[in-house]
Amino acid sequence: MSVSNPTLITFVIYIAAMVLIGFMAYRSTNNLSDYILGGRSLGSVVTALSAGASDMSGWLLMGLPGAIYMSGLSESWIAIGLIVGAYLNWLFVAGRLRVQTEHNGDALTLPDYFSSRFEDKSGLLRIISAVVILVFFTIYCASGIVAGARLFESTFGMSYETALWAGAAATIAYTFVGGFLAVSWTDTVQATLMIFALLLTPIIVLLATGGIDTTFLAIEAQDPSNFDMLKNTTFIGVISLMGWGLGYFGQPHILARFMAADSVKSIANARRISMTWMILCLGGTVAVGFFGIAYFSANPAVAMPVSENHERVFIELAKILFNPWIAGILLSAILAAVMSTLSCQLLVCSSALTEDFYKTFLRKTASQVELVWVGRAMVLLVALIAIALAANPENRVLGLVSYAWAGFGAAFGPVVLISVIWKDMTRDGALAGILVGAITVIVWKHFELLGLYEIIPGFIFASLAIYIVSKLGEPTKGMLQRFAAAEADFRLNK
Predict the structure, then answer these.
(1) Which alpha helices (DSSP H) does 107-222 contain, by range?
(2) Residue 297: alpha-carbon gap to chain centroid
(3) Cα 252 from Cα 30, distance rounded (Å)
């Protein structure tokens, strides 16, 4: 195995630190609320950075720089769409969801919130929501495991099969042990590491290629259209990339951070911190891929790994340009991005299985200790299924993420957004929204209609379904009273 010792040592120290945080969180985890939502105790800094880190998975340092490296700035529309979507999510959903979940049975999960908010006695809303979470999150988890495997494969010369297990093992360990607090605390460390890597790397690449003017001339010489934001794009293409921003309203692992904030008063400060972090990270990511064009065109002898798989552009730049110790820290940032998102997703799947199936339908009288251990068992189960899905070495990180992101964005986004701003939404409206959103994504993806990203028709059709079906019925008096109380609470404390 061709491995540079400093990089390996850095990785081992980093992983050990994350697992140690897991064991520290273990001591603060006494019941299911602690395991799933950290006892609603996150301050604004942890809320902000853990929301950011859990959102920005391996695609931030692999998929997106690779896309920019291949196609130039025309791929950066995705970053613009994400920034707009994330800001609107913080503005309209974050604070309201925090108070609505508290007023609706102190809900711990999205299915829990939906069934309380809409007084669903049948359990149908809870089951369908939990099934959507399990289907799309298992695909999402697989994308994280693929990104981790790519990292271990290219850094340490492992076979893809070995790298698959090595990349997943540490994340599974600390999520299993420490639950939500471990995930949130490690996310904060990981967010710091990611922004360090994404600000430092483009600066060093610029210096290595001779400064801004030389770099831009080299990019232009390689292909002048690299600077063209509209290169090879159509109106539908730009809308599809911008449409990624719609996904934020429905991502359970990000919404869980809002639900876990210590109070609605923390949200405004968290929004400012999170958006600053996000803009800097996405700017750094675009710069790494863009400046990488200049570096590898000037140094064709070292471009082979990137020409074989463009998603390795950040990895190869870090290995070539930095001292092995620094490279180890920078490559740990990819591991951080992968681990932070994967851990949240495993936990959301585990909470859906534990809270929404096991506790609700199988063991209503289960003790808190039993539920925490069932939650841990579910983390392992989902991880094993995701590893099996990730076993194909031909998988591309961005492709897997885009499907899962669209699934959640369309199935849950309109339901979450409309449920916190429109008092007249009904149970049947919510049910119609989830089903129409999820089915539209699956059908649209299968037939690849119009070349339009499936989240956009999914979001539009789900929103229409919610409005039309809700208008056919009316909310109960209890639903209206709880909505009004939560909205008053939000306006008083925001």
Answers:
(1) 110-117, 124-156, 160-208, 212-222
(2) 32
(3) 23
Contacts of residue 286, Cβ cutoff 8 Å, sequence gap at least 6: 64, 65, 68, 73, 76, 79
Closest CA to 131 of 159, 158, 101, 110: 110
Mean pLDDT of 359-378: 84
Q: What one-character DSSP code corresponds to residue 42?
A: B
CA distances from 202 to 108, 293, 306, 313, 321 (A): 40, 12, 17, 12, 11
Tell me, yes or no, if the pTM score tops 0.85. Answer: yes
pLDDT at 441: 94
Q: Which residues pair with 42 in a beta bridge?
A: 261
End-to-end CA distance of the chain: 55
DSSP assigned state of 123: S
Q: Choose among 333, 59, 47, 314: nearest CA to 190.
A: 333
- pLDDT tens-digit map of 410-445: 999 999 999 999 999 999 999 999 999 999 999 999
Distance of alpha carbon 48 from alpha carbon 180, whole angstroms: 15
Cα(44)–Cα(193) distance, rounded to whole angstroms?
A: 19
Q: Count the helices and strands in the chain (H runs, E runs).
A: 22, 0
For the stretch 203-220, pLDDT in tens is 999 999 999 999 999 999
CB 53 within 8 A of CB 205: no
Query: Which tokens sit at 492?
Result: 């008083």
Contact 197, 326 (CB under 8 A): no
Walk me through the domains of the chain, giving residue ranges and CATH numbers: 5-397 (1.20.1730.10)
**What is the Cα gyration radius of the chain?**
22
Residue 234 CB-density burial (10 A; 0-12 exposed, 13-18 middle, 19+ buried): exposed
d(CA 36, CA 346): 11
Lowest mean pLDDT among 125-134, 181-190, 194-203, 426-435: 181-190
